[in-house]
Amino acid sequence: MVTSPLLTKSLAELTDWVEAQGQPRYRGKQLHQWLYEKGIRSLAEVSVFPKAWRESLQDYPIGRSSIDVCTTAPDLTRKYLLRLQDGLIIETVGIPSAKRLTVCVSSQVGCAMDCTFCATGKGGFFRNLSAHEIVDQVLTVQNEFQTRVSNVVFMGMGEPLLNLPNVVKAIHCLNQDVGIGQRGLTISTVGLPQKIQQLAQHHLQITFAVSLHASNQALREQLIPSAKHYPFEQLLADCRDYVAITGRRVTFEYILLAGVNDHPQQAQELAQALRGFQSHVNLIPYNPISEVDYQRPSEARIQSFSEALTLQRVAVSVRYSRGLQADAACGQLRATRAPQDPVLA
Ligand code: SAH
Questions:
Q1: Is 343 within a domain?
Q2: SS3 content of the chain, % helix, strand, coil (to 5)
Q3: pLDDT value at position 321?
Q4: C-beta separation of 223 from 215 below 8 A
């Protein structure tokens, strides 16, 4: 039988677990604190536990990955390559600022969506991450920066809504056990039929972002292959329902690709589509990846697009991705196998 790792267990579950091991129930609270606040990697580290017991449990699975490589960009953003139990490697990014520490987590190893402008899809899809593999990414960054994580964005590798049960489980754990407020947690999705409704049914108070990237169906299909199965109007209707069900507004992400979707007329068309919608548009100037020849628009062009939206009373902000020089910015993350992985030998 495969033993399930301790990470993602709640206080009540950990209390039951220590009791089943023949220990007093109060050790459940100690274990919870050592797991989620101190970020232990082995039960042998829990010095408040009796020595003989913790040593007998030193190999008990906790669910932590190991750090393979860390790259730091000049803006102090750090990209980690984390090695999972099965040897697969995922990327996680820690983004520090004056008041925050944000972690950009992966929800899958690789991605099956194959969006034309994104590096992750170029490497294909390997598998979904378990909930503990998502929480581990946050604890790793928290440990490494020696600072509490304030925000988590599901904007690393993968499509979170194709791994919804594990993503929702991780969100509850990050909220209740790691102690991050739901509003500090953001899911970003390409949008898939039925999936937005399914997420809405969880009534989370998280921040919800949809990668729209185009002002009409034809252009969206050109950039995002999966959009062929999801008409633009249906996507927007599902987002309206999401607002009605959760009471939270939607952020629309819009990558800016020079000469493709950055014309002021396209800003007009976008504003028209979003009329009367409780939303916010987040413009993301394209971050270059090697496989494609899209270009980032000039600063003037980015500003005119943004102003055209503001004139139409659409709330707008521009996201200048951090970590560009470490290939850690939006769209630059890739899945790889560890070179020493015996599966590859
Ligand atoms: N699968 C999720 C998360 C993707 S990453 C989604 O599709 O929303 C977060 C954001 O970065 C998405 O809006 C994604 O479209 C965008 N992105 C992907 N590649 C990019 C690139 N090369 N430059 C800028 N943004 C990019």
A1: no
A2: 40, 20, 45
A3: 80
A4: no
Classify residue 340: in a domain, yes or no. no
Ligand 1 centroid – CA 213 distance (Å): 9
Among 92, 95, 102, 115, say which to mutate for ligand 1: greatest number of ligand atoms within 8 Å of CB: 115
- Catalytic residue, candidates 104, 115, 173, 330: 330
In whole angstroms, how far apart are CA 9 and each of 36, 50, 285? 10, 22, 39
Does residue 167 share a domain with residue 36?
no
Say yes or no: 51 and 101 in one domain: no
pLDDT in tens, 134-146: 999 999 999 999 9
For residues 84 and 95, the answer to whether their CB atoms sit within 8 Å is no
Task: Take atom 15 of ligand 1 and give the residue whose Cα is closest.
Answer: 211
The residue segments making up the domain with residue 50 are: 11-56
- Tell me how far the alpha carbon of residue 115 lies from the centroid of ligand 1, in angstroms: 8
CATH of the domain at 44: 1.10.150.530
Mark whether 148 and 51 lie in a shared domain.
Answer: no
Active site residue 330: yes
CATH code for the domain of 227: 3.20.20.70
Q: Is 111 one of the catalytic residues? A: no
Tell the residue nearest (CA) to atom 12 of ligand 1.
Answer: 211
Would residue 61 count as lying in a domain? no
Q: What is the mean pLDDT of each run of 10 residues along the chain (345 residues)?
A: 87 98 97 97 96 95 96 94 96 96 98 95 95 98 97 97 98 98 98 98 98 98 98 97 96 98 97 90 94 94 97 94 78 60 33
Cα–ligand 1 centroid distance for 120 (angstroms): 9
The residue from 19, 91, 111, 307 that is catalytic is: 91
If one counts the domains in the chain, the total is 2
Tens-place pLDDT, residues 187-237: 999 999 999 999 999 999 999 999 999 999 999 999 999 999 999 999 999
Residues 146 and 254 in one domain: yes
Q: Is there a contact between 161 and 196 (Cβ–Cβ < 8 Å)?
A: yes
Q: How far is it, in rounded angstroms, from Cα 245 to Cα 237? A: 12
